[in-house]
Specification:
13 strands; 33% helix; alpha/beta; Purple Acid Phosphatase, chain A, domain 2; six-stranded mixed β-sheet; single chain; 331 residues
């Protein structure tokens, strides 16, 4: 809450115009400088503001929208959601995507991971944790999203990530997946990051997505089918989904990117899209767009092979409206 409040205070300067922004971004860090009251948060916020300043001019012009969004969500940090308790005899996975550096989304994800003193077994993050791909944004997430002790976090990069962010994630205790499988908490997860995750490009590249789709489809017959296939953009795996559906292979495909909370089924293949854990980022909040924060809790069988039994979709709106949809999955 202090971080959001501090950003709001610093943001008041940014709202004053470009001159105020430049002044804030060049504050001297010499020892004699002292910050008191709300201003005590300024040293923590300067790196993130500098990261935004370093981006292209179009992003910098959106800074007032980011600030307005921060001020709005700072008022909601203490809200809680009931009704997401874990059923007995299941393994639970928290899935989220598209935080876009939204502090509230990070805090809320941490609360869902903790559960009602009954932590999830695994956390999956399907990309776009950051908005500008900076190291400072990645490190902010690593500080604010603290999973329960012993709970592994697996992550793929999204198109909003950049090399500095991906390198920060790689140095953390989280596991970054890119054309590889790992086993964690009894689950086998194969992950592929977005093709522009380690580049300065932000817009999705349709040709590169199609190339990844073709490459993975070529590899798929030789791979041991994982419990979960995680990507950022479903266009990375369209052909692979078809292959798994044709073979009748049970498979959970987790992805984000489109900011649309959804669960669908294609034969034995279940597609889970957690939407946007960051309400599409502070920019959308500052523009007054009513996009909810959304997450999914995946319940798998505890014994034997990991079989997806149910999906709980959580949607939280800034005005306090909460929707919790429990969807059991039959055979």
């Amino acid at each position: 809450a202090l971080l959001a409040a501090g950003f709001g205070a610093a943001g008041a300067l940014a709202l004053g115009g470009a001159f105020a922004l430049v002044t804030l971004a060049t504050v001297d860090h010499a020892p004699e400088v002292r910050y008191e009251g709300l201003a005590s948060n300024v040293p923590r916020l300067l790196p993130l503001l500098r990261g935004l300043e370093a981006q292209e001019a179009g992003r910098l012009e959106r800074l007032p929208e980011y600030v307005e969004g921060l001020q709005l969500v700072a008022l909601d940090l203490q809200r809680e959601v009931d009704g997401t308790g874990r059923p007995a005899d299941v393994r639970r996975v928290l899935l989220f995507s598209d935080l876009h550096t939204n502090v509230f989304g990070m805090r809320y994800a941490a609360r869902l991971a903790l559960g009602d003193d009954d932590p999830v077994d695994l956390v999956l993050v399907a990309g776009d944790v950051t908005d500008g791909g900076t190291r400072d944004e990645a490190e902010l997430f690593l500080r604010l999203f603290s999973p329960p002790e012993g709970v592994p976090v697996l992550l793929v990069g999204g198109n909003h990530e950049d090399r500095p962010a991906m390198e920060a994630f790689a140095r953390s205790d989280f596991t970054v997946l890119d054309w590889e499988a790992t086993t964690a908490a009894g689950f086998t997860v194969y992950g592929v990051s977005d093709p522009v995750a380690a580049s300065s490009q932000v817009d999705s590249d349709v040709d590169l997505l199609a190339a990844q789709d073709e490459r993975l489809a070529g590899l798929w017959p030789e791979l041991e089918t994982p419990d979960v296939l995680m990507v950022h953009d479903v266009r990375q795996v369209e052909r692979t989904i078809e292959l798994a559906e044709e073979a009748g292979e049970p498979l959970v495909v987790a992805f984000g990117n489109d900011h649309v909370l959804a669960v669908s089924r294609r034969g034995a293949v279940v597609l889970v899209d957690p939407g946007t854990a960051g309400a599409s980022g502070y920019g959308s909040l500052g523009r007054g767009e009513e996009i909810p924060y959304t997450f999914q809790l995946l319940d798998f069988s505890r014994e034997g092979e990991a079989r997806l039994l149910a999906v709980t979709s959580v949607s939280y709106a800034a005005d306090g409206r909460t929707s919790i949809d429990y969807q059991p999955l039959g055979e």
